[in-house]
Amino acid sequence: MTFTAKILLLGSGELGREFVISAKRLGCQVIACDAYEDAPAMQMADGFEVFSMLDAELLRAAIAKHQPDFVVPEIEAIRTEVLAEVEAEGVTVVPSARATIMTMNRDRIREVAAVDLGLRTSRYRYAESLAEVRAGAMHTGFPCVIKPVMSSSGKGQSTVQEEGGLDAAWDHAVRNMRGDRRRVIVEEFVAFDYEITLLTIRARDGVHFCPPIGHRQERGDYQESWQPAAMTPTAIASAQDMARKVVEDLGGYGLFGVEFFVKGEEVIFSELSPRPHDTGMVTLISQDLNEFDLHARAILGLPIPEITLHGPSASAVFLADRNANGLRYEGLAEALSVGGGAVDLRIFAKPTARPYRRMAVSLARAENTDAARRIAAKAAAKVRIVYD
Prior knowledge:
The protein contains 12 helices and 20 strands. It is an alpha+beta fold. The model has no long low-confidence stretch (mean pLDDT 94).
């Protein structure tokens, strides 16, 4: 069988699952990797490998075995120096080994944004001990946010209101950090009006932007997102200018999820992911080409057409509430019957559940984003897990 490209996907969660679908539509062969069997993307891929991507030897072995055209990271916990090595040997790392190294460590991407590019960020300090956390909080003031430099989806993140909460926040960050870097960032809490994700595509034909996506978090993890987020033209232009500077500095081709805080018309750089973003799952119903389609096109060097928004849209997550292995879902018909707009579901088919694990997402489109958010939330509430 002839394929357009062979892709080794590092990480096989729900975002990887949707990327596999988009890549296969363009004729790619995809080998999905993760630390556990039957991960969501593995169920869609042409083949799979089960190993820890923090194991340098196993990661090198998987790349040597499959000889991919592209190595596409979907998670943070990767032995990134291996990616730099294989890139030097001629393997294309998406978007690039440097971008992956910079963005999988919050301290490094923050230095790129704040120091190298001079972008507006919150005040911050790094810490590798409780004593350094205390010193960092004295610099930022209270409230402050403490989070591991290496994590995803808000894991290990805490907002601390006063000095007495620093011990618990440090312990929480250390327990939930990914990889083996015992380091956190202590960050000024920005009293923002709202926060956005600006999906930014760096392709051979230039830099492209999706309409901004608003989102809401709990426990540092996304709960709902909506598109378009209401922003002034000045704020949008500022966000696009900063996003363009960062992705051009990082280089390579692909989709980047660039996060900003917005206060009035002031836009403050927060974080960046060099891959599809969880808040961007709203694009599965909002756009003609979703974020996974756009990532695949950019990786393969294909042109990016004008991105068309179908209408105001929203997503809402569905979370598990306990540890379990046997799972089945009920309430799908009720969820898909919620009135007032177009409604859809994505069940991720994760083989196990645990409290607060994201298991599915509902999608809705309506006459405005407020209505879409209500419909998406109502649809998500109709879904039920039956634990065997």
